[in-house]
Amino acid sequence: MTVQSIKGVKDVLPEDMPAWHHLEATARKLFVDYGFTEIRVPIFEYTELFARSIGASTDIVEKEMYTFEDRDGRKITLRPEGTAGVVRAFVEHKMYAQNALTKLYYMGPMFRHERPQKGRFRQFYQIGVEALGMDHPHVDVEILAIVHQLYARLGITGLALQVNSLGDSACRGKYRDALKAYLKKKLATLCADCQRRYETNPMRVLDCKVDADKFGDSPVMLDYLCDPCKAHFHAVESGLRKLGIPYEVNPRLVRGLDYYTRTTFELVMGHVGAQNTVAAGGRYDGLVEEIGGPPTSGIGFALGVERTVSLMDADTLIPSRPVLYIAALGEEAVKLSLPFLHELRRAGIGVDTDYNGASLKSQMKKADKSGAGHTLILGEQEIKNGKAVLRDMRTKEQAEIGLGNIVDELKKRLR
RNA sequence: GUGGGCGUAGCUCAGCUGGUAGAGCACAAGGUUGUGGCCCUUGUGGCCGCGGGUUCAAGCCCCGUCGCUCACCCCA
């Protein structure tokens, strides 16, 4: 048996890279347009960080983290999401002391031990942003605008932006009690999962797919918001309307991580499999303090790279390729090509070849595949005459070039 | 953690009620073509996922196992 990759862990192959690069480049440009700067944080942290931020009783922490002891006996976890590490860095480097509002973005792999399926992997990539330091509703609007803009720039349509408010410590408890009282009456009629969730995470019962139609008259968080939370939510909504960002309020939208407060949102796509949330995020006003920093509000989102890439039209993306392919026919020509390759590359001209000296027929196929705009044909016959042939792959025009000053000549012609 | 589907050439797959393995694409050589792309000929390439069982005989049937995949769950 040959060694394989770990279950649920994918290679991102060369043919996928144009889409990945395009997504990353589009995101970077957009984040800069909105005043964010990149931060790179470790892909592993002390386990305690995630237990404290994500919530000890969440599924992620209870059964999905890659946790192990390092050689010093410390408990280490491969990051299951990006926010905790960024917030830890924010606190550790006392960024709160530098600006009233700190805006960071990140991209990289995350790890969760889940059963793999369409759009869900054990190592997966996220791109995310965090805005720390202000609880002004315009910050929420800005975050939602980024999400909207990013997918617009990527040319992806058919997405729905769903928004909700989860309230804060002042009002969420009250709602939770009201919801449990409501659910208790129906408990016997609910599916087994929901009966379990009633205890562990009652708010999750509301987005159960089996029982979805039973909760039309359930209490809704939005009705229980305290005055400040209500005002905040209304301000976010009016901001979205003012900017013309389409959204819908989904009162049943909840989050799987404990740190979320107030504004919560998801960008969902229909009919791409069960894992149809493409991006999601929300406000987390208590998180910085939880991690040991001063009381600081925050809001952010993360998008799933694989899920987003699957929605992109990869055919429209052109990979970057060398400008010249050298078709060296025969061993003599292969030998001769070595210094040409070196000199051209040294001059910053991309050149490729495959050194096997095979027939012109097969070499031209490779030249096509390489995507190079020109091919330099080094045939036995031409070499004898001190020449090579430069072929423009698009116009099929050919020109003979003397071997004496071939590098300079190519540099000139390939500019 | 729980279910369903599927494992045959590098890729996509065919393979009849069990009879000793096939196609297309790709790759390589040649022919044709004004020096490739179309077309034609030829060639390389398979412990039919792995292990056991039934049988004169297993890619096919049975059991186990590993892997992939989709869904539940959960989430980006």
Descriptive overview:
It is a single chain. This protein has 415 residues and is α+β, with helices and mostly antiparallel strands. Helices cover 38% and strands 21% of the residues. The protein has helices at 17-33, 47-54, 59-64, 83-92, 137-153, 172-186, 192-200, 202-205, 221-224, 227-243, 287-290, 305-309, 331-346, 360-370, 380-384, 406-413, and strands spanning 37-38, 44-46, 66-69, 75-78, 102-111, 123-132, 159-165, 248-249, 261-269, 277-283, 298-304, 324-328, 351-352, 374-378, 387-392, 398-402. The chain has an eight-stranded mixed β-sheet, with helices on both faces. Strand 9 and strand 10 form a beta hairpin. Helix 1 runs antiparallel to helix 5. It is elongated, with a radius of gyration of 28 Å. 33% of the residues are buried. The structure holds one RNA strand of 76 nucleotides.
Explain the layout of strands and helices.
Elements (H helix, E strand, L loop, with lengths): L16 H17 L3 E2 L5 E3 H8 L4 H6 L1 E4 L5 E4 L4 H10 L9 E10 L11 E10 L4 H17 L5 E7 L6 H15 L5 H9 L1 H4 L15 H4 L2 H17 L4 E2 L11 E9 L7 E7 L3 H4 L7 E7 H5 L14 E5 L2 H16 L4 E2 L7 H11 L3 E5 L1 H5 L2 E6 L5 E5 L3 H8 L2
Parallel strand pairs: 1-5, 7-8, 12-13, 12-14
Antiparallel strand pairs: 2-4, 3-4, 5-6, 6-11, 7-9, 9-10, 10-11, 14-15, 15-16
The structure holds one RNA strand of 76 nucleotides.
